[in-house]
Amino acid sequence: LNGVKANSDDVIVFFFGGHGYRTKSKGSSPWPNLVFSQQDKGLEYEYVIYQLMEKHPRFLMTIADVCNSFVGEKSAPPVVATRSL
User: Fold this and answer.
1) In the list 49, 51, 57, 63, which could disulfide-bond 6, CB 3.0-4.6 Å?
2) How far apart are CA 63 and CA 66, in angstroms?
3) pLDDT tens digit string along 62-85?
4) Which of 24, 1, 18, 14 is nearest to 85 (CA)?
5) 66 burial class (0-12, 13-18, 19+ CB within 10 angstroms)?
6) 85/8 Cα distance (integer angstroms)
């Protein structure tokens, strides 16, 4: 995400297909966490959206083809980046 460069006339399309989950600690946020299985780490989808929005493209489309089911906190992959960062 940090390496993506965009101008005000650019289009950004982000697609993630894989595993996803949510935990009770996410509260009322409707967005899932994206799972990177090989590293056993999670990334908040909301973080991805806001990181890309901050690049101010003309058009931004993000798609996450993932589950959004609850899993227990102890079995959930650790989240490495959240929107609060």
Assistant:
1) 57
2) 9
3) 999 999 999 999 999 999 977 764
4) 1
5) middle
6) 24
